[in-house]
Automatic annotation (TrEMBL):
This is Esterase. Residues 4-225 form the AB hydrolase-1 domain. It comes from the Bacteria. InterPro entries: AB_hydrolase_1 (IPR000073), AB_hydrolase_fold (IPR029058), MES/HNL (IPR045889). GO terms for molecular function: methyl indole-3-acetate esterase activity; methyl jasmonate esterase activity. SUPFAM superfamilies: alpha/beta-Hydrolases.
Length: 242
């Protein structure tokens, strides 16, 4: 049995993990999700929703040894949390996620990708402190393989995304890299090209799901099974010294 903390990506919230949490619990694990600052139902104003605040929210939500799962943009906050305090992090799982490089922001990494599937999708708010997505583009990029009712629910649940966390670089990722890490590549992803996921996962054990960008909605049972397998492999590793 493992303890999972599931961290959502851009404009999403804890709501997106409901089916995956249920599937993980059915497999005997503890699992929960949180809203990052300024996302979902969290009331933090956009100008206060920093990458450091995201790391703090994650660390405050942990109790004992925890496997952190970060989807998409959440690769940055789970790595930031590990850089702040890796003590209670059993493993980091990057789910179709950005794996930070030192001194590069998420926006830098997005622009460095081999293609730009989200070009034209962003809608900045007048104060430029958050952004939303064009619903038509979001439906195709995020939820193309989801049941129509699930996709409609998800589109209606998206909230503005604070800009600051995605414009902040980490000076180092050494502590995160010292932890057990895993990458789940979504091979039908229309948001982050699978080939770019492969590049970002260099040096990290990688497995595939034959899904689009949102397997927590399109294939939650398969995702939970993969996370359970990762947990088993993590538990089988020798304990870290020091």
């Amino acid at each position: 049995m493992s303890d999972f903390l599931l961290i959502h990506g851009t404009a999403h919230g804890a709501w997106c993990w409901g089916a995956t949490i249920a599937a993980l619990k059915a497999l005997g694990h503890h699992a929960r999700a949180i809203d990052l600052p300024g996302c979902g139902a969290d009331p933090t104003p956009a100008h206060q929703a920093t990458l450091d605040a995201c790391a703090t929210a994650i660390l405050n939500a942990m109790a004992g040894q925890t496997i952190l799962v970060g989807h998409s943009a959440a690769g940055f906050p789970i790595t930031a949390a590990a850089e702040r305090d890796p003590t209670h992090i059993a493993a980091l799982v990057y789910l179709a996620a950005y794996v930070p490089h030192p001194h590069q922001t998420l926006a830098d990494m997005r622009r460095a990708g081999p293609s730009q599937p989200l070009k034209g999708a962003f809608r900045l708010t007048p104060d430029r402190q958050s952004f939303t997505f064009d619903p038509a583009i979001a439906a195709d990029r995020f939820y193309h393989d989801c049941p129509p009712d699930i996709a409609a629910m998800a589109l209606a649940s998206l909230t503005p995304q604070p800009t600051a966390p995605q414009e902040t670089a980490l000076p180092s990722t050494a502590k995160a890299a010292s932890l057990p890490r895993h990458y789940i590549r979504c091979t039908a992803d229309r948001t982050i090209p699978p080939a770019y996921q492969t590049t970002m996962a260099a040096g990290i054990p990688l497995t595939d799901l034959p899904t689009g960008h949102s397997p927590f909605l399109s294939a939650p049972a398969a995702l939970a099974q993969r996370l359970s397998e990762i947990a088993a492999s993590t538990l089988a590793r020798p304990a870290r010294s020091g």
